[in-house]
Amino acid sequence: EDGDLMVVRRATLQSDWGKPVNLGRALSSHYASCICTDGTTLYFSSTYPGGSGANDIWQVPIRLDGKPVSK
Q1: 4 exposed, middle or buried (CB, 10 Å; 0-12, 13-18, 19+)?
Q2: CA nearest 42: which of 22, 24, 63, 56?
Q3: Three-class SS string for the chain?
Q4: Which residue of 7, 11, 61, 70 lies most exposed, with the fewest beta carbons within 10 A?
Q5: How many CB atoms are located within 10 Å of the residue 61 CB?
Q6: Is 42 exposed, middle or buried (0-12, 13-18, 19+ CB in 10 A)?
Q7: CB 31 within 8 A of CB 54
């Protein structure tokens, strides 16, 4: 979907990239996103409910085993 966060993985730096996987509608109101240099955390700006105001900065751990992170 347009504007959804997607993730693409590859096994090594020399491997081909896999197919994009949509992370779902829960994060679809994001405005900007980046992954930290060690690849363990995704940061994004969003109006996602539960923040302190408009366009809060959120962080989500990236699990290397592919399992979802529980709240």
Answers
A1: middle
A2: 63
A3: CCCCCEECCCCCCCCCCCCCEECCHHHCCEEEEEECCCCCEEEEEECCCCCCCCCEEEEEECCCCCCCCCC
A4: 70
A5: 9
A6: buried
A7: no
Query: Residues 60, 69: contact at Cβ < 8 Å?
Result: yes
- Name the residue with tokens 């996602």: 48
Min mean pLDDT across 4-8, 40-44, 57-61 is at 4-8
User: Could you read off the pLDDT of 10-44 as tens digits, one per residue?
Assistant: 888 899 999 988 876 555 566 677 888 888 888 88
